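Researcher: Excuse me, tokens okay?
***
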Amino acid sequence: MIEFTRRKRVESSLNMAPLIDIVFLLLIFFLLTSTFMRLDPGLEVNLPEARSSGIQEAEEPIVIYLTKEHQLYLNIEPVSWEDLKTRLQESLADKPNKAVVLKADAGVPFGLFVKTMDISKQAGVLDLTVSTSTPWEIR
């Protein structure tokens, strides 16, 4: 009988070092090319130069506070619902484009919130902003 010699089994293995090198080089390539990319669409526009002599001071807005006890304040002064429209009109008499900020407590019913906004619009408010707070400001 013929004896066959058994060959040793060759175990195959994949060397990971070259693969890691290539992935690392690709990562560096994409990081560098992304920093040199322009995010603007590439339109050439001649922008005008600023000609103001200085920085303009921002005007203090008119602030309407609405508490959860249904109390109403106009710039820290208590005001009744009936007087809110006339007081706002008086405040806007010299500058009708003045900003008005509505700061309402979280417990205020939505109906009162909308009522305050409606009265403000009837008084001629053109720039009404609703102020909110972020969760980290509340704590």
Q: What stands out?
A: DSSP finds four helices and five strands in the chain. The two ends are 91 Å apart (CA to CA). Residues 62-133 form a domain with the Nucleotidyltransferase; domain 5 fold (CATH 3.30.420.270).
